[in-house]
Amino acid sequence: MRRPCTRFISPVFFSFIQDETVSLLRLVLEVYMPELPEVETFRSYFKQFALNRVVVAISIQDERIIAGTGTEKIWKYCMNRQFVEAERYGKYLLAETEEGACLVFHFGMTGYLVSAIHQAHLPVHTRFVIHFHDNTLLGFVNQRLFGRVTICASPSEFIQVKKLGPDAMAVSIDEFATVLKSSSGAIKTVLMDQHRIAGIGNLYSDEALFQTGIHPSARADTLDSSKVAFLYDTVRRILGESIACNADFSALPADYLVNNRNRNAVCPRCGTRLCTDKIGGRTAYFCAKCQS
Ligand SMILES: [Zn+2]
């Protein structure tokens, strides 16, 4: 049974407003960075509304969304093609055409996808629109313009060019342990480093460290093997749980940190006031009593 959440509103509601003209992936307009589970929901959305339809036009409302790529390249690889598969790697959505090229979405902050029948129904901050042969549209909404759309020859090429680490849902325990053992930085920073492990950001690194009792500033290479294994299992379990509920945080347990992230909140486990600190350029939430 779904539990109403009074403390935190999930950024993503994977519920569609279905009428004759528009389907929307609803999103509460707050500042957040889509992480692996959110991008997984976008992948499902893309598969539902964009696969196996011929691209007949692409309109770009703001050239900054394709910075470094150029319209000609996007048209060359996408026009009159179909997307036959949608994959996720880390925080990226890779939409493959039948010839193997990929249109890559990075959602930045506040990015999401919207399917519609009429362009007038797309949100005001839609930056990039794919027009399909069946008169449907897929819009990439990105209010803050930190997101990007680009083209690559294949998923493997993209991963190589971006120097991404193994995906957080596919990384092995040995790879995970090696990453941590070779890193003298703060464990939170290491978890968020996409070149080491791809897909984890601020929210899920905080959650995993909270649930394992590890202080976010602890040196990654000082964790013993049992802590590393516990963290590995916890990261993957939390990501899996979030994917299963389409990144709707209100569907996650009330004692998860993600449902208690505000400056006046107390630790859901011990009642101590939660702390914040800047770690790896992001605001970490943690309990100084439960995490050491
Ligand atoms: Zn606590």
Could you please describe the fold and organization of this structure?
This protein is an alpha+beta fold and 292 residues long. It has two domains: 12-161, N-terminal domain of MutM-like DNA repair proteins (Alpha-Beta Barrel), CATH 3.20.190.10; 173-286, Helicase, Ruva Protein, domain 3 (Orthogonal Bundle). The protein has helices at 36-50, 71-78, 155-161, 173-181, 187-192, 202-212, 225-244, and strands spanning 12-16, 22-27, 55-60, 83-89, 92-97, 102-106, 111-116, 126-132, 137-142, 148-152, 275-279, 282-286. It is elongated and about 55 Å long. Zinc ion is lined by residues 267, 269-270, 272, 287, 289-290.
The pLDDT mean sits at 89
- Please outline the major beta sheet: 6 strands, antiparallel
End-to-end Cα distance, whole Å, is 34 Å
Estimated helix fraction: 25-40%
Query: What small molecules accompany the polymer chains?
Result: zinc ion
Query: Which structural class do the helices and strands define?
Result: alpha+beta
CATH topology of the largest domain: N-terminal domain of MutM-like DNA repair proteins
Q: What percent of residues are in strands?
A: 15-25%
What is the highest CATH level, the class of the largest domain? Alpha Beta
* SSE sequence, one letter per element: EEHEHEEEEEEEHHHHHEE
Q: In DSSP terms, counting alpha (H) and pi (I) runs of 4 or more, how many helices? A: 7
Assembly type of the chains comes to single chain
**Shape estimate:** elongated
What's the total number of strands?
12
Spatial order of the strands forming the largest sheet: 1-2-7-9-8-3
User: What are the segments in which pLDDT stays under 50 over at least 5 consecutive residues?
Assistant: 1-31
